[in-house]
Amino acid sequence: MSYIKTIICCFLAWATYAPVSAQYSGLDLLDGEDKKEIKFEYVNGFTIVKVIYGGILYMDFLLDTGASHNILFKKNANDLLGISYSDTIIIGGAELDVEMKALVSRNVPIMLEGTSIILRDIVVLEKDYLDLEKMLGRRIDGIIGGDFLKGLVVELNYKRKKLTIHNPDLFEPNRNFSVHDIDLINYKPYFRSVTRIEDKIDTLNYLLDTGASLALLIHSNKVEGFQMPKNVIIGSLGKGLGGDISGFIGMTNHIKIDQYEFNNIVSSFQEIDSSILAKRNVVRDGIIGNIILSRFHVVLDYVNEKLYLKPITKLSKEFAFDKSGLLIYALGSELDQYYVKTVYPNTPAEAAGVKPGDKIIKIGFWPLVFYDLQKITNRLQGKSGKTIKMKLLRNGKEIKVKFKLKNLFED
């Protein structure tokens, strides 16, 4: 899963839902306590929490502030537990122009590790359309969305990998955090930020999305007078309900989150079909994802519509991005076999002759038993000029290739 790491991980900005139950305040998670702490994993730009589903099954869910509702990818889990369905609804994905039917299960027993069992409505996909497991190299069973988090103060400590949920009536903000206004729409947080791309400066409305393994996405045809950066790459921005999401990848020169500033952010640019803009009230101009958010200790107050931030790393630190031009998938029953899904044009990997479908069996001196998908990603995000040697298997024959990593956005 290399290419532009901040882009190719699927970003889940579920855009259109028929309403499901909104009867829960969120405080039932606390079971009368002021706050509760929950561990999470941070893998390839995704926040992952352990969930006990149906009171029985241990599962891994994405913590996704960019999703309105809770979603189960594995319908067979519901069927195994004998959980029934009450409704059929229409859902939409990050690509915004794809809609399809999903099922709703009401009052499903569910808990995060460390909390009490609560009842929540779950949107159930009839099949797992997203292939997230192939892109992350590990199991992902569903999404915890805003419906789960509403009525709470949600604190994400990326440094300690700890999620803390607070009773908003008892929460006292830390003085070391800056405070910012946000808008909550359908349980999703939005923040307005000054953005510069070359000579164009504008204030854009961004969805703050912990379900997005990217730094920044901009809907290029929604922003008046928008001009694409000069140096962009045509490619896949991620995976949605309708398949691969196409667009462009390039550099955003500057973005401000009030007093915090970032320069040279690897960004994706997605064009929304004009008919979709005419038909729906698309609130967001883009997405701020985990690659930026994880540079902060983040607190989201879902009741008072406030965002609290405290930097946990140098904000001027260069953003890591792929310099090879490869999109790698993990396959096999253990997700420990690595294949080239896509080779992007005019990149070092293409020039070296790497082909889609090639199986990677060795990188450098080390066989793949010493790697996981995260380590492969990190290797391909190395310094420009670093030589990468690979042994590939293609049609039963071993092939050796080598190429030098390159900043794909330089002239």
Give the percentage of residues in beta strands: 35-45%
State the shape.
globular
Helix percent reads under 10%
How many beta-strand segments? 28
Tell me the structural class: mainly beta
Distance between the termini: 25 Å
Q: Low-confidence runs (pLDDT<50, min 5 residues)? A: 1-24
Question: Any overview of this molecule?
Answer:
The chain has 411 residues and is mostly beta strands. It has eight helices and 28 strands. The strands form four sheets. A six-stranded antiparallel sheet has the order 1-11-10-21-22-12, with no helix packed on it. The protein is globular and about 60 Å long.
Tell me briefly what this model is:
The chain is mainly beta. The chain has 8 helices and 28 strands.
Structural key phrases:
411 residues, mainly beta, six-stranded antiparallel β-sheet, six-stranded mixed β-barrel, 8 helices, 28 strands, 44% strand, disordered N terminus
How are the secondary structure elements laid out?
Layout: H1 5-8, E1 35-39, E2 41-43, E3 46-53, E4 57-63, E5 71-72, H2 75-81, E6 87-92, E7 99-112, E8 118-124, H3 132-136, E9 142-144, H4 146-149, E10 153-157, E11 162-166, E12 178-181, E13 183-185, E14 188-197, E15 200-209, E16 216-219, E17 233-240, E18 243-257, E19 260-270, H5 274-279, E20 286-289, H6 290-293, E21 296-301, E22 306-311, E23 326-331, E24 337-343, H7 348-351, E25 359-363, E26 366-367, H8 373-379, E27 387-394, E28 397-404
Parallel strand pairs: 4-9, 5-8, 15-20, 16-19
Antiparallel strand pairs: 1-11, 2-3, 3-4, 3-7, 5-9, 6-7, 7-8, 10-11, 10-21, 12-22, 13-14, 14-15, 14-18, 16-20, 17-18, 18-19, 21-22, 23-24, 24-25, 25-26, 25-27, 27-28
